[in-house]
Design brief:
By secondary structure, the chain is mostly helical. The protein has six helices and two strands; from the N terminus they run ααααααββ. It comes from Tenacibaculum jejuense.
């Protein structure tokens, strides 16, 4: 991630001081991050995401995707219409018949949702445990 932060600085021709001012963090924080002394916090990452529209969060975190972000290729839950109904398909009763289970899936344990984490644009989050 440090390399991607340096890439952002180069792309926008920013010094570490200018970058710190733009995202509203102490300039020592930038120095510590770029030297590898510290790792970026969630708050820091959210400030970068908010300050630079062209930075794709997935690219910043994982190095996947592109910079500057290509809005045509990005897939995000947050870009979808909130009131849009999900697509449904007709499912026949036979799809759930246990006698027709495939051997590949009969030994897999069921997946159980245990935690949901919601991240908000202001850097806060909520965690919901089972």
């Amino acid at each position: 991630m440090i390399d991607r932060l340096k890439f952002i600085l180069d792309h926008y021709n920013l010094t570490s001081t200018n970058f710190a001012e733009k995202i509203d963090v102490p300039k020592s924080s930038i120095s510590h991050l770029l030297s590898g002394r510290n790792k970026p916090s969630l708050d820091f990452i959210m400030k970068v995401d908010k300050a630079f529209d062209e930075v794709d969060l997935v690219w910043l975190l994982y190095g996947k995707g592109s910079f500057p972000k290509n809005n045509d290729d990005s897939i995000s839950l947050f870009n979808q219409e909130l009131n849009k109904k999900p697509k449904t398909e007709a499912i026949s009763k036979n799809n759930f018949d246990n006698s027709e289970k495939s051997d590949n899936f009969s030994t897999l344990p069921p997946k159980i949702l245990t935690k949901v984490i919601l991240l908000y644009s202001d850097g806060t989050f909520d965690v919901f445990d089972k």
